[in-house]
Amino acid sequence: MSSVEIAIRSIQHYLYCPHRWGLLEIDKAWEENIFVTKANLMHKRVHDPKKNYISRGKKVFTSVPIYNDLEPYNLYGMTDCMELHENKNGISINGSKEKYQIVIVEYKPTKPKNQEYREDDLMQVFAQKLCIDFVFGGDCKGVIYYGDVKKRVALPLQEHFQQYDDFLRKTLEEMRDYLEEGEIPPIRKNQKCSGCSMKDLCMPSMKKINDVRNEIEKIERASI
């Protein structure tokens, strides 16, 4: 029996906040804020088919459907952008004479303040890499483009492949366990909730108060 299919975008949601992911995937809840709207507008522009083009030595395609149905991955999704750069050490695409190095470009509206990239964003691109390498062969590269600073950041996907692969397998196993049980993960300690669009639905501060009340009730029951 094959495992539950996982959408690539949901991996980023889970790693950002498992509880938020559970509200989205299990409770089917949704709420937007300015950050979500900003990201949606950026991706709407990026996914415009008019953005596809071919120039000398380079081909650019947006909204490319990808998948990897090998266990334990069983992933599917869509790239923001896939670039094909002519490279004699690359791969042939659909029997073409030219050979290409594939580069994944993931678009994000805002660059993190104190780091080059967020780990959850990197793992989203790594999952895309597993799918593209599965479909086309080769060993594709990945970058994140940050709209606010108009800058690309190269990701060390090839250099740390085994580390990321082990982590992804563990993450997918956790996600599938929650999905099969229909259980929403608890809020993590030190979870940053200030910019989350689901904050009003999640009410993390109220949950903390309720957790304290529950603990007090347990102590009182035990002392009777």
Structural class: alpha/beta
The CATH topology label is: Lambda Exonuclease, Chain A
Radius of gyration: 20 Å
Shape, principal axes of CA atoms: elongated
Give unreliable regions as ranges. 208-213
How many distinct beta strands? 7
The total domain count is 1
Number of helices: 7
What is the assembly state of the chains in this entry?
A: single chain
Taken in chain order, the helices and strands follow as EHHHEEEEHEEHHH
Question: What is the C-level CATH assignment?
Answer: Alpha Beta
Strand content: 15-25%
Largest sheet: 7 strands, mixed
- The mean pLDDT is 84
> Portion of residues in helices?
40-55%
Name the CATH architecture. Answer: Alpha-Beta Complex
Family: Belongs to the CRISPR-associated exonuclease Cas4 family.
Domain DUF83: 10-203
GO molecular function: exonuclease activity; iron-sulfur cluster binding; metal ion binding
Keywords: Antiviral defense, Exonuclease, Hydrolase, Iron, Iron-sulfur, Manganese, Metal-binding, Nuclease
Note the main attributes of this structure:
alpha/beta, 224 residues, 42% helix, seven-stranded mixed beta sheet, 7 helices, 24% strand, Lambda Exonuclease, Chain A
Describe this structure in words.
The chain has 224 residues and is an alpha/beta fold. It has a single domain (6-190), classed as Lambda Exonuclease, Chain A. It is 42% helix and 24% strand. It has 7 helices and 7 strands, in the order E-H-H-H-E-E-E-E-H-E-E-H-H-H. Strands 1, 2, 3, 4, 5, 6 and 7 form a 7-stranded mixed sheet that branches. Strand 6 (141-146) and strand 7 form a beta hairpin. Helix 1 crosses helix 2 (18-25) and helix 1 (8-16) runs antiparallel to helix 4 (119-136). The chain starts with 5 loop residues before the first strand and ends with a helix. Mean pLDDT is 84; it is low at 208-213. Its EC number is 3.1.12.1. One of its GO terms (molecular function) is metal ion binding.
